């Protein structure tokens, strides 16, 4: 049984009766939300060695949170379907039940740093990672009595249009800046350096693939798997994998250029500016570079003055940093995207 199916049975067969026995008309929502590979439907036998098991998110009114949590802590039996209802997460010593009881606002703010049902600022949108959003929108919902999860998820369907353009432009700007460096390093005999830059560019292209597909990107462990499942991205996946397999820089840049051509075609299909081809020669050198005009036309089409004023090429928090300590904490993410000292030049 996978984690999603387990969570559904846990809710329907055990948690629901415990709740309704005490509060017959308790308004609530429930699902397998938050962290964990099972939220994405990607857990397997190996996933069970830590932080896997009887897990559930239960959303109730703020005034009921403490009472409901205490009730479950007292009334849950030791096991369900042969699995412990109480166990310690990684880094913890004391076992506890893992029905996360929270209000809708507290749950979503804890992941995102804001409540998307309210007005969200440009900085707010730029401060979220795809993984943070997936912890809210990806998992199965078993009950949504008052529609709160539905409203939250509707608000998180995608970026506002101009923020989307800005994020897409940032990926192209990064590709323009670094693509010829990959080839130059290889041409100089620094194959290791060329491979390191290639890996960075592949990750940028993967982010671009998710963004053009209007899908939130997961954290790196599941990025390749979920890229392969994006509709119409099989060719992009194939060419990006070939970049990393390539034995020398010429093959590397050719495979990357093929992936970028496919991404630019997807961009045109999405209704965004897509002046082709995706790459061109870099001065008089035998290197390819992503066309600067692509990012420039995306930026030129931004109408929102607040988005237009953003530093070009800085982007969202997950385009600015790969630091897990930053990306997994909403206050640090918000602080980074709001830092005025980070400019085009800095």
UniProtKB/TrEMBL annotation:
<dbReference type="InterPro" id="IPR025117">
    <property type="entry name" value="DUF4037"/>
</dbReference>
<dbReference type="Pfam" id="PF13228">
    <property type="entry name" value="DUF4037"/>
</dbReference>
<feature type="domain" description="DUF4037">
    <location>
        <begin position="125"/>
        <end position="222"/>
    </location>
</feature>
<protein>
    <recommendedName>
        <fullName>DUF4037 domain-containing protein</fullName>
    </recommendedName>
</protein>
